[in-house]
Each structure stands twice: as structure tokens, then as C-alpha cells.
Amino acid sequence: MQFNLRQSIRMAIATVLVALFIVPTDALAQSHVVSPADLQKEAVAASQVRQHNVQTVQHLLSSPAAEKALKSAKMDPPRLISLPVISASAT
Questions:
Q1: What is this structure's pTM?
Q2: Of 6, 27, 39, 68, whose CA is between 20 and 30 Å from 57?
Q3: Are 40 and 59 in contact (CB under 8 A)?
């Protein structure tokens, strides 16, 4: 039996393809750059910061001085107080 280069290359390619299909893709995708727990923690932290900022703005806009300034500018204070909540649902 003679050494056949083409046949050897075909066998090597077939072996590589079989190995690729045997290895489960889930095993290759197990390592994440950022863990899901870290993502959850950051999402919760961002939500808490945003909620604090919304409360600060609502407190500022509901103060008597702010209400007086808004009324003199012909703006509706209750409508402005609800704007951060509306824009949060739009994002």
C-alpha cells in the first residue's frame, strides 16, 4: 500500500470535522466575560441610583418655591413631577 497524500489530507479533515461536531457547543460557551450575577448586581445598583435621582427631582419640584416658580412660568407642577416616571417607561 502506497502513501497517498490526498487520502491522508482527507482523513485529517474528516477527523477534525468529526471532532468539531462531537464537542458540545454548550461546553465551549460556558465562560462569560461578565458573570450573570455581576450583571444582575449592576442592574440593581443602577435601578437604585435612578430611583434615588427620581425621588430627589420629585422632592425638588414639589417644594413650595419650585411650585411658585413653575406656576409663574405657566407650567403644571404635577405634570412635571410625573415626567421622570413616564420617561423611565419609554427607555
A1: 0.50
A2: 39
A3: no
